[in-house]
Amino acid sequence: MNFWDYLGNRHQQLLTDAFQHASAVFQCMVVATLIGVVIGVVTYRSEWAGSLATTATSTILTVPSLAMIGLLIPIVGLGVAPTVIALTLYGLLPIVRNAIVGLRGVDPALVDAAKGIGMSRTARLLRVELPLAWPPILTGIRVSTQMLMGIAAIAAYASGPGLGNEIFRGIGSLGSKNALNQVLAGTLGIIILALLFDAAYVLIGRLTIPRGIRA
Amino acid sequence: MNTPRKPSHPTPPARPEGEHEVKGVPFRDAGEAEQEAPPTPAVASAPPRVTWQKLTILPAVLAIGLLITWLWFRNAELDSIAENALAGGIVWLRLRQHIELTVISTFFVLIIAIPLGILLTRKKLRGAAPVAMAFANIGQATPAIGLLALLVIWMGIGMRAALFGIVIYAVLPVLSNTIAGLKANDPTLLEAARGIGMSPLGVLGKVELPLAVPLILAGVRTALVLNVGTATLATFGGGGGLGDLITTGITNQRMSILILGSILTVALALLVDWLASLAELLLRPRGLEVRS
User: Fold this and answer.
1) Which segments constitute the ABC transmembrane type-1 domain (chain B) (predicted)?
2) In order of start, what are the domains of chain A with their CATH numbers?
């Protein structure tokens, strides 16, 4: 069976896997973004809290994903739970770091001006600081998403959802005719998903970055 | 009183709640304000590069973690399957394989990526750099496990396929780092070097490369950390390494093996990152340190 026949025969299964892959990454990214930005907002004003947050998240990133999943399995079991936790944890780092860098990079004069016209602390944060820090945060989200695409594939080994299952089925049947087709379908599918996500982020950037600070 | 802020730190001083600001100068108490307010011209006495915290905290934490694991593992009840899986010094073998995979692949990544990065920033080949970058972007979207599986199908099971996969996966990030760093060199410095009559090779060897040393060291660190991680996947292609313990633990449902493998992997990854960060600090040229 050549590759195109394989795609034709299995498109149902492949589409389901691709959808699950994308939805797992997307949902974990939403959670990671929320947590990451909150961590950034809470820590960016103090030197040590900021560097603590950055160090902690970058330590997590240093841990190989298979080992992280291995440590999660005894605690939460196989399946969706370790996948979701691992993806969210790994997704945090670029977002936290870029949120802190972005928020610290906001011109203090602007914040002062906002204070001067009587904006409250919350209003300053929501209407001045976060919009100005949004481009680096969005970059962080893009970097995270690409990374999570690959980690989600590995998580399939712990019975997680997604296209990784296709790859592992291929590895499991090494030597059979379909092994190459399965691995190729899984890998290309993930690359395509990653590029689609990337395109979506470019679009989101166009729509959400305030006109005044667009490059 | 707080410890004085490092004068060379680029971030603006943080302002805690309740602190006033007078003409842009944080107003807390006299001593502190004096230390923070003026952008200190140069670092008068260079702070030590490696603080004792950096030297001790991580190894201490790792040592304690490994000790606890060892004590726990000695008392863990292993059934025959688990014992067979760990018989004959297999743990040491896997650890050694993992380190081998990491070191060899890092070596190849560096001798491929850095010269290639230098070539792609030369005038004649500069046009090819965006192509390489676009390629690098697609490469980054490729899942490591997929790449490895394809190589195993192509080259057969074993350490060779794993090594190839690890190298290919890490070359692209190091390459794009190198290109970005060489491009970021101040063009006036290069202009000046050419102006005093240095040959292109002289400019490269005496100006560009020394300026790019921090970047190359960062590349080494990136490669090492990435490779420790990718090497865990070598097990799926019969390449050995600590990933083997993890997968054995998962497939045989033996949590003790799974935990042992995972903890050893984590410890190795953190240790490698720590060593690389020390090297990064110690090998950086002194002349590049003063940034105000």
Assistant:
1) 95-276
2) 16-213 (1.10.3720.10)
Does B145 sit within 8 Å of A153, measured CB to CB? yes
Nearest CA in chain B to A172: B236
* Residue B261 placed within a domain: yes
User: How distant is the Cα of B262 from the closest Cα of chain A, in angstroms?
Assistant: 4
Query: How many domains, chain B?
Result: 1
pTM: 0.79
- In DSSP notation, A15-73 reads HHHHHHHHHHHHHHHHHHHHHHHHHHHHHTTSHHHHHHHHHHHHHHHHS-HHHHHHHHH
Contact state of B153 with A174 under an 8 Å Cβ cutoff: yes
Q: pLDDT tens-digit profile of A109-147? A: 998 999 999 999 889 988 889 989 999 999 999 989 988
- The alpha carbon of residue A32 is apart from the nearest alpha carbon of chain B, in Å, by 19
Q: ipTM exceeding 0.95?
A: no
Contacts of A171 in chain B (CB under 8 A): 149, 152, 236-237
Q: In a 3-state reduction of DSSP, which class is residue B21? A: strand
Q: Which residue has the tokens 């399995």?
A: A73
CB contacts of B147 in chain A (<8 Å) are 187
What is the extent of the structural domain holding B156?
63-288
Whether residue B21 lies inside any domain: the answer is no
For residue B198, the domain's CATH number is 1.10.3720.10
Closest partner CB to A73 (pick from B258, B266, B273): B258
Nearest to B145 by CA among A89, A163, A122, A114: A163
